[in-house]
Amino acid sequence: MNPPAHRPQAAIIPVLLTLLLALAGLVLVPSTGTAATNLVTNGSFETGTTSGWSCPAGTVSGSARTGRYALQATPSGADIARCSQSIPVQPNTAYTLSAWVKGSNVYLGVDGGPSTWTTSTTWSQLTVPFTTGASATSVTIYLHGWYGLPAYQADDVVLDGPGGTADTTPPSTPGGLTVGNPTSSSLQLNWSAASDANGIDHYDVVRGTSAAQNVGAVTNWTATGLSPSTTYSFKVRACDPSGNCSPYGATVSGTTSSGPTNPPASSLPKHILTGYWQNFNNGATVQRISDVPAAYDLIAVAFADADASRPGAITFNLDSAGLGGYTVAQFKADIAAKKAAGKKVILSVGGQNGTISVGNSTAANNFASSALAVLQEYGFDGIDIDLENGVNAQYMGQALRSLQSQFGSGLVIAMAPQTIDMQSTSFEYFKLALAIKDILTVVNVQYYNSGSMNGCDGQVYSQGTVDFITAQACIMLQGGLRPDQVGLGLPASSRAAGSGYVSPTIVNNALDCLTKGTNCGNFKPSTTWPSLRGAMTWSTNWDALNGNAFANQVGSHVHSLP
Which of 33, 51, 126, 428 has the fewest beta carbons closer than 10 A? Predict the structure, then answer.
């Protein structure tokens, strides 16, 4: 349809009117409602300081987007240079957070809410819309960079929306602290809940003269990584969402038991090869458990399913149709046969598309009870946590301890976090690993689909190299895990992952570098860890399609380690 040759006269009249008014010095502006209100204190940094912000690694610079000053914060090898501010808000209300940023991997977000990031050599605006919860009275906004990367800049930070009433009243002091249930490396703390008109955001626990540790909005917590036969003192305070904190309660002491700090060996060899077995057909070789090569000491069945009827609970459903008619009876018999041959078969929870979430005590109890039932039904030896959409260290730790107490000391507990999840001990996956260190078997980090990451020496390494693997692994080895709890996770073939595949030779070189100090790349750790646990691959199915190169070459090398 062709447009009309002439503009209709009705449309000409308001145009002429606007021109006449403009000539008379008037401007027609459509109504936009209430003007935007910026709730951020010192969001443009024109005070020439970082006042209003908690920003230990930040200062101001004269290179601003607008005005004279902008924020400049410099990450380090162990710090992301976070700058944050707590702001009073109203509940059930929509807000928009925005900031202009410049630099590599610059993040803008809201604690407990959404975030976004960018890399830009020029000023670029980030925007984060969000809606507050039903009981929210404040939010904490933040900016940060990334480990080891250059300084980033930020300017004109705006939180648009109605302001709330500032809360200046601290919570009551938590009482009734007890310290008990000692093991040779842990003590369990329990205390009475504090009260606050706006709710409790978290509790801080101080051990001896150490810095306060935020343990979440819980009334029990387990201190781990302790020494045998040693007395430790603790005190607790409560903090509300506005950052007001109570005085610390009375200091209480407890003593760890004597004995070894290592978890039960679970009959696994000193060095192990772990392989994931696919309970689905995605183009890799379809296998039965009996088809998995004997080189694999630990077989992780992928994956458990979420139980939609109970938050946190899991089920397992064998994909008989997709696996060529593999029956449940045959599956159980094959698991039993592997166990009789000295292997361990565990159930993996999560995966890329996993929807299981354990974020409160109810979900933790559901996870433990349902997992116990599934493990007992099929004869699994343990559980693997592969929740790629995130974990809650407090409640998943609670769930795993409950499961272990019911299953027994022989429970195998493995984890398979993504590379980024283990970059810092402050990250939830790392916190979980340390919290259950006394019952944890192995952590096989996925050193693929990662891009470039910061190593333990503060340098940035690209995936697909010996340096990337070894510099990432030493973050865990230096961060508190024992060497026998650390494994190297790599894809079995180039088709098994989006990126990060390396040949078995590279995997073996990384193992040698970490255990013997040989075959390293440019990065060579200052020490060796001969008891490093081994290697893992995704998956035994993709390995089979690749001629079992991982099982044959990496497996034999793992088993020859000192």
Answer: 33
Over residues 438-469, the pLDDT tens digits come to 899 999 999 999 888 889 998 999 999 999 99
**Torsion on CA atoms 530, 533, 534, 535, rounded to nearest 10:** -140
For the chain, how big is the Rg over CA atoms in Å? 28
Give the C-alpha separation, 202 to 239, whole Å: 6
pTM above 0.85, yes or no: no
For residue 68, give both structure tokens: 């004279």
Catalytic residues, by residue number, are: 388
Q: What is the pLDDT of residue 9?
A: 38
- Structure token pair of residue 462: 């690209």
CA separation (Å) from 204 to 120, 186, 217, 300? 37, 18, 9, 37
Considering only CA atoms, which of 400, 425, 402 is closest in space to residue 413?
400
Q: Is the peptide bond before 367 cis (omega within 30 degrees of 0)?
A: no
**Cis peptide bond N-terminal to 539, omega within 30:** yes
Q: Residue 251: CB partners within 8 Å, gap ≥ 6? A: 233, 234, 235
Instruction: Render 142-162 in DSSP notation, one character per residue.
Output: EEE--TTPPPEEEEEEEEES-
3-state secondary structure 365-419: HHHHHHHHHHHHHHCCCEEEEEECCCCCHHHHHHHHHHHHHHHCCCCEEEECCEH
Q: What is the DSSP code string of 343-360?
A: -EEEEEEEETT------S
pLDDT at 113: 84
**H helix or E strand, kind and range, residue 509:** helix 504-516
Asked if 131 and 94 touch (Cβ cutoff 8 Å), the reply is yes
Q: Are 534 and 489 in contact (CB under 8 A)?
A: no
pLDDT, averaged per 10 consecutive residues of the chain (562 residues), comes to 36 40 40 58 94 90 92 82 90 95 94 89 95 86 87 96 87 95 84 89 89 80 82 94 90 86 66 97 96 98 92 94 96 96 95 74 90 96 88 90 90 95 89 91 95 89 95 93 96 95 98 97 95 97 97 97 92
Q: Residue 470 in contact with residue 300, Cβ under 8 Å?
A: no
Residues 6+ away with beta carbon under 8 Å from 380? 301, 335, 345, 346, 347, 374
- Relative to beta strand 344-351, strand 382-387 is parallel
CB 101 within 8 A of CB 120: yes
User: Which H or E element spans position 67?
Assistant: none
Return d(Cα 190, Cα 138) in angstroms, integer: 27
Instruction: Return the residue matching tokens 């626990």.
Output: 205
Tokens in use for 387?
């929740």
Q: What is the pLDDT of residue 66?
A: 93
Q: What domains does the chain contain, in order, with CATH numbers?
A: 58-160 (2.60.120.260), 175-255 (2.60.40.10), 272-559 (3.20.20.80)
How far, in Å, are 193, 200, 239, 290 from residue 164 at the CA level? Answer: 26, 18, 18, 62
3-state DSSP percent of the chain in helix, strand and coil, to 5: 20, 30, 50
